[in-house]
């Protein structure tokens, strides 16, 4: 798409949006400034100028000002002549008073305004801003016109290039294409005539962007690139400056110099650059004075010369340009200096900070050691509390232990008695003796397993996380209370995933939590008819978590303690201390888990423990059903 097409659309959109936003009442009181742009956004110089102008205008005005921007250059719009563009601009103010001030930005907009000055609100003051003074020499300014111009010294920049790179033999000048490029080629050809015995100049105005990049990639030795502007190539295609600079920087085999301050940092070595921000502020100052009634002829601003030499340290390093060859009073930016040269005070401050940090670190290490000791004491307290709770739980399961041991011990005694009788009667054969002894051994192993299971539960311990299988923990917890369930006529239902589910935790402490919840569930159903005494142990598995639930059919948790159930000494049992659930919650929190309780809609309560799963290999199938 051509710049002309973009310019027409940008002009229409900008004008309609800005004017449409102002009410007719505001249009009578808010000063109107018509800003005629030479290029669409993407031109670094004009974008920076416009931003600086708008900011300074707002600062100086102290009250609202309405700025209407219209892009009028390069000359011509697709499907519209310049008079049609003039008519369009005039139509923007139909029904409104005309602009209080017209400001043009750069040469193409200035040429447009001078050509159609009589049709473009001739009674409004006109400021030619950001324009080289040479573009205004064709005719004197009108009585209602003034200028904030610049005095570019392009031949002076070539002198600086020869000081920096005295072996330079060719200068490739980037000027874009179109009427503006033709103007500057003619101007610069005249200015550079004094270098004809030393330098050869080549021009980009007849090249497309790809052709220009190929040319810059194959420049002869001792060449430089002089970047004036680009905007549009020979094929009529428009490009944003940042894209052109980036492409040139990547492909060029010669150093690049520019003329505007905003180009520094985009690949140019530097030079005597025009300070665009200062130019924008100067234009804003003139605009404010004109809006407040100052006669244009009374305002005479001298053309702004290039500023002090600015250079990019990175480009100096890239092209091996010694800093001692730079012009006097040069400013080098983007430098990577030695720490001591540029930051001696900072280094001294940093040393002081390091000393302070060292003292802080010592203090923090002391605090960390104290915290670790406190955490160790806390874990020990947890272990002691958990051990006490386990012993209390096992004490409550004494009858269960006795019953479980009674069966294998009784069988062993009967077998031993039978063997003794057979020996006394001289009827014992080796085969019979072997069978009886094997039976005694089997019952002994069974009794040993029962004792080991309860001894493990009673042993004091610290938190010791390891991968454990969920079903094993649940099955062993049920085994510990199985006899008590039979005595209390409680039916246990198990609803677990069909596949393995690995969690990271302490086997014994998690078993303690489940045993506590199972005993609480049985205690809650003391008044429940035996036929309805059900405890359901379930698990719901997700890729990251597993929720273990213990569900009873008792009366549920009283509403007045449901929010404080896990606090110490809160209990619903006449014989309870109210510490079991508190210890259970502490154990689950130590596993980075959650334990909560809720009443079931159909009666009873559900206690749920949520824990993290351990490792990708632990992922099993989803639960077969919800508890």
List keywords for this structure.
Rossmann fold; five-stranded mixed beta sheet; 17 helices; 19 strands; 46% helix; 16% strand
What does it look like?
The chain is built from 17 helices and 19 strands. By secondary structure, the chain is an alpha/beta fold. It folds into four domains: 148 residues, Rossmann fold, CATH 3.40.50; 147 residues, 3-Layer(aba) Sandwich (Rossmann fold), CATH 3.40.50; 65 residues; 165 residues, Heat Shock Protein 90 (2-Layer Sandwich), CATH 3.30.565.10. It has a five-stranded parallel β-sheet. The chain has a five-stranded mixed β-sheet with strand order 14-16-17-19-18. Strands 7-6-8-9 form a four-stranded parallel β-sheet, with no helix packed on it. Helix 13 packs across helix 15 and helix 16 packs antiparallel against helix 17.
> Count of DSSP helices?
17
Q: Given the helix and strand composition, which structural class is it?
A: alpha/beta
Portion in strands: 15-25%
Distance between the termini: 66 Å
Number of domains: 4
* Uncertain ranges: 1-28, 75-79, 617-627
CATH superfamily of the largest domain: Histidine kinase-like ATPase, C-terminal domain
Quick check: average pLDDT?
Answer: 82
- CATH level-two architecture of the largest domain: 2-Layer Sandwich
CATH class (first level) name of the largest domain: Alpha Beta
CATH topology of the largest domain: Heat Shock Protein 90
Tell me how many strands there are: 19
Rg value: 46 Å
- Across the major sheet, the strand order is 2-1-3-4-5
Helix content: 40-55%
């Amino acid at each position: 798409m051509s710049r002309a097409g973009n310019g027409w659309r940008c002009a229409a959109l900008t004008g309609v949006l800005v004017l449409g936003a102002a009410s007719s009442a505001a249009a009578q009181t808010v000063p109107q400034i018509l800003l005629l742009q030479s290029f669409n956004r993407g031109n670094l110089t004009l974008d920076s100028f416009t931003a600086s102008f708008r900011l300074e205008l707002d600062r100086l005005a102290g009250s609202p000002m309405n700025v209407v921007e219209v892009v009028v250059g390069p000359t011509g719009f697709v499907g519209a002549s310049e008079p049609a563009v003039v008519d369009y601009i005039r139509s923007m103010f139909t029904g409104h008073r005309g602009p209080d001030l017209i400001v043009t930005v750069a040469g193409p907009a200035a040429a447009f305004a001078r050509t159609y000055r009589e049709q473009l609100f001739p009674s409004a003051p006109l400021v030619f801003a950001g324009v080289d003074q040479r573009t205004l020499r064709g005719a004197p300014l009108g009585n209602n016109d003034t200028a904030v111009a610049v005095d570019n010294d392009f031949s002076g920049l070539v002198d600086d290039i020869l000081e920096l790179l005295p072996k330079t033999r060719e200068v490739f000048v980037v000027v874009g294409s179109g009427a503006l490029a033709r103007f500057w080629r003619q101007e610069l050809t005249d200015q550079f005539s004094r270098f004809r015995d030393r330098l050869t100049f080549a021009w980009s105005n007849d090249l497309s962007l790809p052709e220009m990049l190929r040319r810059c990639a194959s420049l002869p030795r001792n060449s430089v690139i002089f970047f004036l502007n680009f905007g549009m190539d020979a094929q009529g295609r428009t490009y944003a400056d940042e894209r052109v600079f980036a492409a040139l920087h990547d492909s060029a085999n010669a150093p690049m110099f520019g003329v505007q301050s905003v180009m520094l940092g985009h690949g140019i070595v530097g030079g005597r650059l025009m300070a665009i921000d200062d130019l924008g502020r100067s234009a804003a100052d003139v605009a404010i004075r004109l809006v407040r009634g100052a006669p244009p002829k009374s305002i005479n601003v001298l053309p702004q010369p290039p500023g002090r030499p600015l250079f990019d340290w990175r480009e100096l390093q890239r092209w091996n340009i010694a800093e001692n060859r730079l012009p006097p009073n040069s400013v080098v930016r983007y430098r990577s200096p030695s720490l001591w040269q540029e930051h001696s005070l900072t280094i001294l401050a940093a040393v002081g900070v390091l000393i302070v940090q060292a003292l802080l670190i010592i203090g923090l290490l002391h605090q960390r050691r104290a915290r670790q000791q406190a955490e160790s004491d806390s874990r020990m307290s947890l272990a002691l509390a958990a051990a006490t709770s386990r012993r209390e739980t096992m004490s409550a399961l004494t009858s269960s232990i006795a019953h479980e041991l009674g069966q294998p011990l009784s069988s062993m005694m009967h077998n031993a008695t039978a063997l003794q009788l057979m020996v006394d009667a001289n009827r014992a054969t080796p085969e019979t003796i072997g069978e009886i002894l094997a039976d005694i051994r089997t019952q002994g192993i069974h009794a040993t397993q029962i004792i080991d299971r309860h001894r493990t539960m009673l042993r004091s311990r610290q938190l010791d996380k390891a991968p454990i299988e969920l079903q094993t923990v649940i099955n062993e917890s049920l085994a510990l209370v199985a006899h008590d369930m039979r005595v209390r006529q409680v039916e246990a239902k198990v609803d677990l995933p069909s596949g393995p589910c690995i969690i990271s935790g302490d086997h014994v402490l998690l078993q303690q939590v489940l045993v506590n919840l199972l005993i609480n569930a049985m205690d809650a159903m003391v008044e429940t008819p035996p036929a309805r005494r059900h405890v359901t142990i379930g698990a719901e598995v997700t890729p990251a978590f597993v929720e273990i639930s213990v569900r009873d059919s008792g009366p549920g948790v009283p509403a007045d303690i449901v929010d404080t159930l896990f606090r110490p000494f809160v209990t619903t049992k006449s014989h309870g201390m109210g510490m079991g659930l508190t210890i259970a919650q502490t154990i689950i929190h130590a596993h980075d888990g959650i334990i909560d309780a809720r009443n079931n809609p159909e009666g009873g309560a559900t206690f749920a423990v949520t824990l993290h799963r351990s490792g990708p290999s632990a992922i099993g199938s989803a639960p077969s059903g919800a508890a």
